[in-house]
Amino acid sequence: MFNLDLLGYGLLSISTFFIGLSLHADNKIDKALKFLLILHGIFFVCMFVPILPLPASNQGNGGTVALICWCLFFLPICVLSALHYKKLSMAELQLSQ
Questions:
Q1: What is the pTM of this model?
Q2: Which of 38, 47, 61, 63 is 20 to 30 A from 91 (CA-CA)?
Q3: Per-residue b/e over 45-81, b at no fewer than 16 CB within 10 Å?
């Protein structure tokens, strides 16, 4: 079950990578959002961890540190996405008037 969960998170990461590539950055907020999305997409390599021949006796804190670093992306991406789409909706309102 863990492998299936990891596959889902890996696909989430690679989708944010491609969203970051397709985002048109017009200002600093959009550039920061694009950078964070692409950086978050790099975590897709975690999909391949179950197939790597890693020793089972290695019980270090690397996974915990990686998880904490990965979770630190969520708040800035949410805030920057909200600002990005607020700017887009304001532009649509101005065009419709």
A1: 0.76
A2: 38
A3: ebbeeeeeeeeeeeeeeeeeeeeeeeeebeeebeebb
